[in-house]
């Protein structure tokens, strides 16, 4: 008969544990209090006992430092870090993160099941981070070839292939809001299947409100991470969603939403980052950064920690996670205070990944088998010209700093020989998306305000969610050249200005580097510096911001390889022309 | 393709709902606030929308009354109500209860799978109450024939037969603490199986503390309802258990434990009744009574309601329960205030079971096929005599009012002709347990203090958990006669005093009546009055208290058909003699 409990005797104290962390100030997120002077006994991968009377083969006196559970990110797309999972794990474990709930839909959009398998493989080759996955619900975001060309398609049958893998713990964010609300049979089937499995269905409902929100929640979708204002978030909480407060590189919503958190609702509120670029990981951190924001804004430290630990585990129905108790995975962080949350030690599954500031050695670099996903037939530069239409104004996307929501504006463009031109005086750039999976030659052209470009062009093969090539620039030659350089590097982010260029190569599916965390940070920083100095844009993370301009499930105006797409909450997206009727 | 969401259009408002509850004061246990003037749209069994703009085929103006979710009892043995489930549902729905989490281990101990099937059948024949079951983990409480004779045995193989029934949502209370802690392979197998199914394992750990508690929790057991003091409950909460605060007829712990509840821990605290007799159901109520205690003791009403609704649903991982939101089962209560919690209307699964004080008509009475479970070979009266041993003191159980914990005391008994006798002057009665399942003739004899008996005898075929016949009395003839009358009625509770007697017949497995709620209350009240008037005992619910004196998993001294058993937390129970060494 299988004994699932090999450390029962260590728990009972009739055998010594492997390790005793003595003299801890235990942050007990279960009971909401701090316990002084306790010992934590660890055997194998698990905490086995808490008290003062345990013994361990090894004993470490923590001298009254705080010990809190390893932090858990409730929703993230790891591909956005541009790092392979082992390198991302290195970056995140320094911040006290021991587990993430990752939706692999970026790589799934590029490389379908093979892409997801790659993430699973690399997750298992890292020792720092427990990576739980959600089953990508919307590959592509909206499966309508008239809205955009997409590379992969995952219907309900394909999704069922994930059901017997215990690392998949939810259905990933249901971005296809119209499909859900208006009853697309495939969407309803996915939701029916996941509920029958007893797993959560994660939501994605920016600005959704009223009856459409009710209908969306009626389908069993039980969380959201897209709220940008308190009223929006309050309505979602009232109507039954767990709220994930998000602080991503391009989606900074945490501080705005904290006024919502109170003693009666916080158990249904979690922290999530959604998308983090490597510079932010290096400079700000991860969930530790979010905890600092919480505490600085008056949230009690214990409540902030609950939102990043036990609340996440409870939402995902994981019994042995999110807190430090007998039988829990030994995922924990040692830190001298609860204001800065800077770890002196981090343990994952009973093994130190950082101890006294020293990290586990990095594993062997992983070679990717996912190269050469670029298959683009770029148009000639002349094809990018936009002919003016007499008496009509130009429709353009307006970018908003720190948000992935965009607006729509109309402008009178500068004309040269009857062709509409980018115009630094109006902060107006041209923006193009080039299909890059099927060699179709499809591309879309539009205009965008708010990027701050003065000259040159910047582009990215990270372009949510279908990850075609997106480029914004101030002249067609630069735009064409940026796109060409991206294909030459098998994917990446590129800025060009005259003959000069900077490249952040992303050869793994066009989304990720196979370099180290440190090298990618340097490359990305060089790219950003170049954008500021050579392209004249002061926008923070220009390439990252650009990568969301092609996502036709986020209001209000986006661009795909099929052209401009208007997105409004609760309505089906519609293509619109460059010129206003 | 199956559409699991037939009321999506009603949720979206493109079709009217079946029913609109207008002008509600919605008690939102999800966000912890009260929403004024909202409408609740209901279609089929579910809430489909909340707002002000819905329409329904029928519309009821609730004129600003409070609407809160149907109450959920986190742990109960329905058999203790002595009512069949349809009658119990009648009694409970009047209190605003719409769901219970029932451990059918009483009837399982008497009649194994057939008994559980009976409860399942009757649950499906009631329209008032959603009865979720736990899989009885400990039938019998401790499977050791030297501790007591038991009728049924359910090993891990038998328990697996429940796994595909979705009404079973947890492993029932693991009362076999020694088996768990010291690694009985069958117990470990049950816990391993349930964790693999993703279901909770409920605990039962009176007075367990320190390392044995750690070991018990290490096994994945994640709740407890047996705490009697704040320090005990705090330790269990700290170590990872969800706490069920209990207010049963014989186990009154709620008020003592309320000081523990605070803003940081309340999401892990639930309300439960465990065992309720029909008089208490009639006079005090059910969870509404517990809510009144909470509010009277300073717990905010919203938090009290969370403990009786959403916290319970979250613990058992039920997604569409415990709150009023789109997609939730329409289980709700209408009441004029949040201090008395007296419903004017109760709805279960979209159907009113009480409206304007009028109840749904009762269903057809159910005939039980579980009669004649009595199979006892009672000893002659002379066999009950206890011969004094020179120079030795008598060991006796001490009963504690309102608790199922007992103590152990030693007394110098009154002797008559060298035989130890009951003694009203010392409040000392004789207590016997007679095996009644296997016709074995086994019986145990001991003494007990604290029942307040002056004469006669009182007995019960409800005798946790093996449900042999237990009788306490002041003379052997009365004891023998009470036992004989219980067998004659195919089970029941009986009091005898000289030639007079009162009987509450319990022919369904010796545990339940097949009468109506009202008739059982009258019979039980008559029995209690008789105990007071004819037997002279002022103890509240004497027969109910007696029914726990045979449960050898509750400290500190109990009696079975094998004699006295000493029970200490964290240790294996041991048989002890009537005379102290």
Strand content of chain A is: 25-35%
The helix count of chain A comes to 16
User: Uncertain segments of chain A of ≥5 residues (pLDDT<50)?
Assistant: none
Helix content of chain A: 10-25%
Biggest sheet architecture of chain A: 9 strands, mixed
Radius of gyration of chain A using CA atoms only? 24 Å
Overall number of strands of chain A: 31
Provide the residue-averaged pLDDT of chain A: 95
Identify the biggest protein-protein contact and residues per side.
A-B, 69 and 69 residues
Shape of chain A: globular
Secondary-structure class of chain A? alpha/beta
Q: How many angstroms does the end-to-end distance of chain A come to?
A: 74 Å
The quaternary organization reads as: homodimer
Give a short overview.
Chain A contains 16 helices and 31 strands.
What key phrases describe this protein's structure?
homodimer, 581 residues, eight-stranded mixed sheet, 16 helices, 24% helix, 28% strand
Give your account of this protein's structure.
The model of chain A has no long low-confidence stretch (mean pLDDT 95). The N and C termini of chain A lie far apart (74 Å). In chain A, a hairpin with a 6-residue loop joins strand 19 and strand 20. In chain A, strands 1, 2, 3, 4, 5, 14, 15, 16 and 17 form a nine-stranded mixed sheet that branches. Chain A has 581 residues and is of the alpha/beta class. The first copy, chain A, is globular, with a radius of gyration of 24 Å. Chain A is 24% helix and 28% strand. At the A-B interface, helix 1, strand 3, helix 6, helix 7 and helix 8 of A face helix 1, strand 3, helix 6, helix 7 and helix 8 of B.
């Amino acid at each position: 008969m299988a004994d699932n409990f090999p450390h029962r005797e260590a728990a009972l104290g009739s055998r010594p544990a492997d390790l005793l962390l003595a003299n801890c100030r235990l942050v007990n997120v279960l009971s909401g209090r701090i316990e002084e002077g306790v010992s934590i006994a660890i055997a194998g991968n698990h905490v086995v006992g808490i008290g003062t009377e345990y013994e361990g083969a090894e004993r470490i006196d923590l001298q009254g430092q705080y010990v809190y559970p390893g932090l858990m990110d409730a929703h993230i797309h790891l591909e956005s870090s541009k790092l392979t999972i082992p390198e991302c794990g290195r970056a995140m474990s320094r911040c006290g993160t021991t587990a993430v709930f990752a939706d692999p839909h970026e790589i799934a959009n590029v490389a379908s099941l093979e892409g997801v398998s790659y993430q699973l493989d690399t997750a298992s080759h890292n020792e720092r981070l427990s990576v739980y996955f959600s089953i990508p619900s919307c590959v592509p975001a909206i499966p309508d070839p008239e809205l955009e060309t997409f590379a992969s398609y995952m219907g309900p049958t394909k999704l069922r292939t994930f059901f017997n893998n215990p690392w998949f713990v939810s259905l990933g964010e249901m971005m296809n809001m119209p499909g859900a609300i208006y009853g697309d049979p495939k969407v309803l089937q996915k939701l029916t299947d996941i509920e029958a499995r007893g797993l959560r269905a994660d939501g994605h409902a920016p600005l959704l409100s009223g009856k459409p929100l009710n209908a969306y929640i009626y389908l069993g979708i039980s969380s959201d991470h897209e709220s940008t204002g308190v009223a929006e978030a309050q309505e979602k909480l009232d109507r039954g969603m767990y709220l994930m407060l998000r602080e991503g590189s391009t989606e900074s919503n945490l501080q705005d939403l904290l006024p919502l958190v109170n003693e009666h609702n916080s158990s249904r509120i979690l922290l999530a980052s959604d998308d983090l670029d490597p510079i932010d990981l290096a400079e700000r951190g991860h969930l530790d950064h979010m905890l600092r924001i919480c505490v600085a804004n008056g949230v009690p430290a214990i409540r902030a920690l609950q939102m990043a630990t036990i609340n996440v585990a409870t939402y995902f129905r994981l019994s042995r996670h999110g807190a430090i108790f007998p039988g829990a995975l030994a995922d924990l962080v040692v830190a001298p205070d609860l204001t800065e949350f800077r770890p002196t030690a981090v343990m994952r599954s009973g093994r130190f990944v950082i101890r006294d500031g020293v990290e586990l050695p990095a594993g062997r670099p992983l070679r990717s088998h996912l190269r050469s996903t670029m298959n683009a037939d770029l148009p000639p530069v002349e094809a990018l010209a936009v002919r003016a239409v007499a008496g009509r104004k130009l429709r353009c996307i307006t970018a908003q700093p720190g948000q992935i929501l965009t607006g729509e504006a109309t402008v009178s463009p500068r004309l040269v020989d009857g062709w509409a031109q980018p115009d630094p005086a109006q902060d107006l750039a041209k923006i193009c998306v080039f299909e890059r999976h099927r060699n179709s030659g499809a591309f879309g052209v539009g205009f965008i305000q708010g990027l701050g470009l003065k000259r040159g062009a910047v582009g990215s093969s990270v372009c949510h969610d279908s990850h075609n090539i997106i480029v914004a620039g101030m002249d067609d030659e630069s735009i064409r050249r940026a796109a060409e350089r991206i294909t030459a590097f098998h994917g990446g982010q590129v800025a060009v200005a005259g003959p000069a260029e900077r490249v952040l190569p992303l050869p793994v599916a066009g989304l990720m580097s196979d370099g180290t965390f440190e090298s990618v940070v340097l490359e990305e920083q060089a790219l950003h510096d170049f954008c500021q100095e050579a392209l004249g844009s002061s926008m923070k993370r220009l390439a990252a911001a650009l990568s969301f301009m092609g996502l036709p499930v986020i209001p209000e105006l986006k661009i795909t390889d099929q052209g401009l797409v208007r997105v409004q909450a609760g309505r089906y997206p519609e293509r619109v022309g460059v010129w206003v009727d």
